[in-house]
Amino acid sequence: MKKIICITICIIMATLFAGCGGSKQSKESGTTNKRIDHTYLYKRILNQYKRSCETNEESDFDNKQELSTGLMEMASEKDLPHKVGYKLIDLNDDGVDELVISLLEKKGYYNYIIAIYQYIDGKGVQKIEDGWARNKYYLLKGNILLNEASGGAFCSHTSKIKMTGHKFKTIAMVILDSELPEDEDEVAKPFYLYNPNGKATKKKEFYITRKEWENKISEWENEIEKTVFIPFADYK
Hints:
By secondary structure, the chain is α+β, with helices and mostly antiparallel strands. The protein has five helices and eleven strands.
């Protein structure tokens, strides 16, 4: 009888210890996985965007320019608090979120990023990318950015870029450029390049056809994430 009681007690004690251990592990895991809200780092910038979107006055032009060229382009738009939004994203996987400002999706085209801010120790918050109609940024899977930059009818760079530390590194690029004709009466001849290493170059080995250039851009645009941004109308 005593032997049975001892065995029963041992089983109960083992169960209790296992429960305590599991509870402790659960608490530790919860603490480890808890996401830190870095909104406080960008409070000043967020407040400025909120005010500019709400007032949207011509006298606020300089402030819009300081915030983002893309925001300045929206100066004639109505109801900006519902057309501009933000999201905190850890683009470089260092544990501290970057602040991403984006136009919200409109009918007929994707929303695109108009500014990215980063908190840097000793320097505070800095704008590290500025987006506008001819220099658009989109978020792809894996926190990779797609940058579509245009310098004119026969000059454009479409790049995949990845943030490491405090800098963005181009990891792949397609280029549309043109050769200036010797005769002024002749039309410039366009050419197309694809460099999987991300460096701008005009070496013949990187030449591709127009169709290949179009297909590569389409392939990358299909990777654009449908990211949900918080409209400044909801920011408090």
